Amino acid sequence: MSKLINKPVEVMLDNGFPCRFFFQKPVFIRYIQEYWREVGQWWLGEPERVVYQVVTDYGLNELHYTPHDDRWILYRL
Amino acid sequence: MFVHLHVHSQYSMLDGASSITAYLEEAARLEMPALALTDHNNVSGAVEFHKTAAELGIKPIQGVEITLEDDSHLTLLAENSRGYANICQILTKGFARQAHGSCRVPWEALAEHHEGIIALSGCRRSRISQAILHRNPEQAQAELQRLIETFGREQVYLEMIQSYLPHTKLLFEGLTILHENTKIPLVATNNVHYLSKEIFPVHDLLVCTRTQTRLADIHPERPFNAENYFACPTEMARRFAAYPRALEATLEIADRCTPALELGTNLFPRFLPDHDPQAAKELLKQLTWEGAHRRYGTITKELEERINHELNIIITLDVADYFLVVWDIVCHAQRRGIRYAGRGSAADSVVAYCLGITNVDAFARGLLFERFLSLERAQKPDIDIDFDARFRDEIADYVYKRYGENHVASVCMFQTYHARSALRDFGRAFGYTPAELSQLTKNITHCPADGIRGLLQRLPELRRHPLNHPKYARLIDYCAVVAGFPRHVGTHLGGLVISAQPLTMVTPLQPSAKGVLITQFDKNTIEDLGLIKIDLLSLRTLSAVSDVEKKLHDQGFAYEQIPHDDPKTYARLQSGSTVGVFQLESPAQRTLQSRLGSEVFEDIVASVALIRPGPIKGDMVEPFIARRRGLEEVTYIHPKLRRILEKTYGVVLYQEQVIEIATEIAGFTPGESDRLRRAMTRFRSQAEMEKIGKEFIAKAVANGVELSVAEEIFSYIVGYAGYGFSEAHAAAFADTAYRTAYLLEHYPAQFYAALLNQQPMGFYPPNTLCVQARQRGIKILPLDINESESDFTANRKTIRIGLKQVKGMENAFLESIIAERRQAPFTSLEDFIYRTTVSRDVTENLILGGAFDRFSNNRRHLLWCVPTYYQNKQGSLFLESPVQPSVPDFPPLERWIREYQVLSLSAEHHIMEFFRSKLPKTVLTSQEVTGRKEGRVQTAGLVIRPHRPPTRSGKTVVFLTLEDEFGLIDVTVFENIYKRYAEVLFNYPLLKITGEISERDENQITSIVAHKIAPLIL
User: Fold this and answer.
1) Residue B472: Cβ-neighbour burial (10 angstroms; 0-12, 13-18, 19+)
2) What is the pLDDT averaged over residues B212-241?
3) Around B834, how many Cα atoms within 13 Å sit in the side-chain half-sphere?
4) What is the pLDDT of residues B97-132, one digit of tens each?
5) Of A36, A41, A42, the CB nearest to B165
6) Could you tell me if A48 lies within 8 Å of chain B, comparing CB atoms?
7) Three-class SS of residue B442?
8) What pTM does this model have?
9) DSSP B846-882
10) 3-state secondary structure B146-163
11) Using one digit for the tens of pLDDT, what is the confidence trace for B988-1002?
12) Is the Cβ pair A42, B227 closer than 8 Å?
């Protein structure tokens, strides 16, 4: 069962892709299942974001990255 | 390196957000050797694509993204011209038997026309991709097998698009498996829809427009992200780092393809069934000489030389069949009694005159054939013919039947984005309300989509326009991107192409909204494909003329026998009272007529050519008038100019004169002269014009002309050449202009009624025609349910308003009224409602229009009765009696307004009558103003056609006409006054104007120069 988190997290990259993030504790990413880009509600000023579905020891997680402000969010656990 | 093989331009309507030129320029900048164009279900951009690619040194690969019967997509590329022809066939079959605008290609069409085509498996909407995404690898394999069987193993590629959508990984894995199993190569594309990410919002707005959604709505076709841009090779290499072979495949495909279009070939029609060009040439000669004997009687040596000269050029250019085709069309019109008039530069041709295509004697007028056709220019002839508007489609039908549907098509026309349409579409997508959209588009007229900002800055009446608010800045920017982009495809009003070979060799054919087959290329590019166009146009003036002739038939009247020297007709022209006369009714023309004092047909020809942007800007009008009236001496700086310019009093007025001057003075051949003339009209820089000037002057000097004289002659023509009018065209128009002036003079009631029946047409609204008719002593009889016919009807001194004039009136209603009335006249409103099938709305409009005044003059009371009568008619169990007449009628002004709203005219009164008694005596009527020769005056009236034509000075001047119950007064508003009162001028229907009677020649109609403008409000 997924849980909405929607909180900023620190993410480490490997070759441009997330490999580890810190949410209450370090979480290692086993592999990236899927990733895509979304424009969002651009007409309301919402920035583009990249969505990563990553598999960790705790299951499937969703990280969002907004290039606009170089910010990472743990969206869902 | 990499080549984009899946690109959507502006011709992927309401989807592609960047132009062909933009993509090609970017491809050139990125040093891509080739580019493919794959618009949705059309190849409309092919000519532009090929021409621009050639200029930029890029290989064009013509393709298309088709939609199959199951709504899936497939990308096709033409490997060669055979492949292109097959794409045209495939698309034609895709459009056949579908709703207008819809293309669904049956697989059989692919099987039948596969040769020369490379098939890419397609985007996410393809069958293969859908099968993979639905986790059905067997289905994906089967679909690929089907593609291989249809196109051949060597012609199929698996298309990979990395645009960072969900499930791309799954898709790529599936395509890779297929590749490994079948060895069908992978190829990388980016399904490009816009040049850069910054333009993505425009793409999204276009999709919203297409799907009729707002930005805030969710729709499956809305783009998920902004990744389908024209990515550079570096970016594509990054996206396909794991699939380098897919990138290399784009270059392999580009290498295999050759440019598909063979521009400049000849697909002219063939007239005779056996397509024998030699027999056609002989037939043309025979018909021409027969016609010459008919027209001229005696054939002089000069005439014979002229005709032979034209025939020689026609035959050398291999367009004899074209002339025969046009001859055949006009013969058909003659047999059917359909009025027509050839126009344009075709009137420069004696052959066309002999064949009866035009009615202008080019030989007698000394017109230059090379203006129409020459060996040096070797361009295709373009003949335009106006027909009685009611029968134009019948003529087109004849052509379709005569040559076969595969060989005839109408030329398409792209309805392109202008400021208003872009604001409406994008504003709707943003979620603005209809009221807000109405405010945003108000007064934004005649403006390209990228000209909105400039317009807001330039026009003072837009100072307080809502678009000035910063919140609309982005909207204006997005509108600018789609300036000139096609929004949807329609039918050109008159253009038809006829080809000896099947048209689908070079263009797909698709049905228009009316079911007529149209090409996918418009008039600007159709001839580049080797096709030749005939313009069969509708002219309502000819319909009006036919109606008058029919009406007067019993009196022995024949339009063709109108004498060209009727003094009363010229007197009418000289008076400037020419509202309704073809080409001569605008305020500028009416003023010109009153100043020029036309006495002969040549004066009318000159008039048609004079009131055009060119002569106005070139400062030709005043010298011409002065010389024509003998107020200025006519001089020629070289004796050779006398013969050429004598008929226009030394003023260069016609394009043909420019050609003749270049021929006589500089020794050019007529064909070279016409090419020179065209070069002068299209010059892009001062340096280019100077180069042309040097060539002209050098040749003139070599021809024995003094240098200073040569330079002066060149200066005459250089400012003019860009804007001049063809004398042949002017003469053709002048013929109709004179004849309609004759009708106006001698048969005003019948002529005004005929014009009213053909609305909308002409310069003035129907109400103005009624005012003019009343001024001529003609009574306008009101709408009457028992007396009015469908159309306006006229006797010598009366015109009865027709039922068709009522707002909302439909043919079915008219038929019902006329049929019932034939049985017995209507005896009451109730009787009318019971006996006819007319809708309630239209019945109410009939009441407001006065149709039932004979039963009760209280229109409000009649309106109150309507619901009850309709209820009773529906068979209510409770038959009700209508309200008793205690409700008073509308007050007079309201009654007038309501009548005007449903009829667009008034039978008896002018709105100014309601204001007259309340206006001070200092506010003069149009009659009183006309009686003054000079001085300051104040007047008031209804504003007719305010407009801003180009002026000599380049400053803004507004011309309008004020109409009152007595007539018309023309008003000029110069720039300083316009800036002060712009908002009033364009936003109020009734104005009070203070101004000075403008200086004028004797006989010139009175006009006012405005100093002050105020709205007229009761």
Assistant:
1) buried
2) 96
3) 11
4) 788 889 999 999 999 999 999 999 999 999 999 999
5) A36
6) yes
7) coil
8) 0.83
9) HHHTTTTTTT-S-HHHHHHHHHHHHHHHTT-SS--PP
10) HHHHHHCHHHEEEEEECC
11) 999 999 999 987 666
12) no
